[in-house]
Design goal:
Elements: H1 2-6, H2 12-23, H3 31-47, H4 58-66, H5 77-86, H6 93-111, E1 119-123, H7 129-137, E2 140-145, H8 148-163, E3 169-174, H9 180-183, E4 190-196, H10 205-215, E5 216-228, H11 231-235, H12 237-243, H13 252-262, E6 265-275, E7 278-286
Parallel strand pairs: 1-2, 1-4, 2-3, 4-5
Antiparallel strand pairs: 5-7, 6-7
Helix pairs in contact: 2-3
This protein binds S-adenosylmethionine (SAM).
Length: 289
């Protein structure tokens, strides 16, 4: 049934657009067109038991995340680098959303009484824009990503701080978030561990929560920021399939339960921000003192 529907004239446009999208990652698509392509792909892959996606091969999942930037069809590496290094100052809604996310993060840190020069660990930092801001603010920051290209560019942000003559404590490390306690550590050290729009890329988010717990000092806080809800698994399917990256959405209840199971107390849901069709979760939770 799903296979017949995907092959039907009803999804002709979706099929055609996906072929174009394969050649041009940034093909401009309207919301309706995204829906047409996404629905076609989900039906097609459901009929082959490929949807919902299962992520079973850690080495493959890591390789895809590491090589993400080289997989963007029709875009040069230099263009991607320029785009990433301009983050969060993207013109329009994207930029406004990043800056809104950052100001929300700072407000939450202040409410939790985590203030400079507290020690922060960021997981999945991309090219490090948030870590740069936090270090300039006065926090002592270690920021990590699995991708060598991310960290190479993040170092440029660090150099820009030095060029401004500012004193800041900022270190970038290549590290998978699931095993960050073993590779970067140290244990029982950080006042807060934060992850912003990156936990949904983790190969094993439960292991990541455990690793964050182990890195925190007693009384320290985990901040899970702007992570998408379950609809994301459907909405991001087209984009994720183009580059084979790991994209899942979270159930709020599942996140909450797992934070408690890991040993966090004071698990607080800070509500979600409306973002297109998905809601983004914000959680904070404290390691017992
Ligand atoms: C959507 S980006 C978000 C980056 C950053 N937080 C930001 O706001 O720009 C997801 C990031 O997570 C990283 N990532 C994906 N899987 C990872 C893993 N298992 N361990 C560490 N980093 C990972 C990616 O390389 C990328 O830097």
């Amino acid at each position: 049934m799903a296979k017949a529907l995907a092959a039907s004239p009803f999804f002709r446009k979706g099929r055609k657009l996906f072929e174009e999208n394969r050649r041009a990652w940034d093909l401009p698509l309207s919301k309706l067109e995204k829906l047409q392509v996404g629905a076609y792909l989900i039906l097609e892959d459901y009929s082959k038991s490929l949807f919902p996606p299962r992520f079973e091969d850690q080495a493959k999942a890591y390789a895809m995340e590491i090589n993400y930037r080289t997989q963007l069809a029709g875009i040069s590496l230099e263009t991607t680098r320029q785009t990433e290094l301009r983050k969060p100052f993207w013109f329009g809604r994207g930029g406004v959303e990043f800056l809104t996310g950052y100001s929300r993060l700072v407000t939450v840190l202040e409410q939790l009484k985590v203030s400079p020069p507290s020690r922060l660990l960021e997981l999945g930092c991309g090219t490090g824009w948030m870590a740069e801001f936090l270090a300039i603010t006065g926090f002592d920051v270690v920021a990590t990503s699995i991708a060598l290209t991310d960290i190479a560019d993040a170092q440029r942000r660090q150099q820009s701080i030095v060029a401004k003559g500012l004193e800041a404590k900022l270190r970038f490390e290549i590290a998978a978030m699931e095993s960050v306690v073993e590779t970067v550590g140290p244990r029982n050290h950080y006042d807060a561990v934060l992850v912003f729009e990156a936990l949904h890329h983790a190969f094993d988010w439960r292991k990541t929560v455990q690793s964050a717990f182990d890195c925190l000092r007693p009384g320290g806080w985990i901040l899970i920021c702007n992570e998408p809800n379950v609809l994301h698994t459907f909405i991001s399917y087209r984009a994720a399939k183009l580059v084979n990256t790991h994209e899942i959405g979270f159930s709020r209840g599942e996140l909450r339960r797992h934070l408690s199971v890991t040993g966090f107390t004071e698990v607080k849901y800070l509500g979600s921000s409306l973002h297109l069709w998905t809601k983004k979760h914000w959680f904070v939770a404290q390691k017992p003192a």
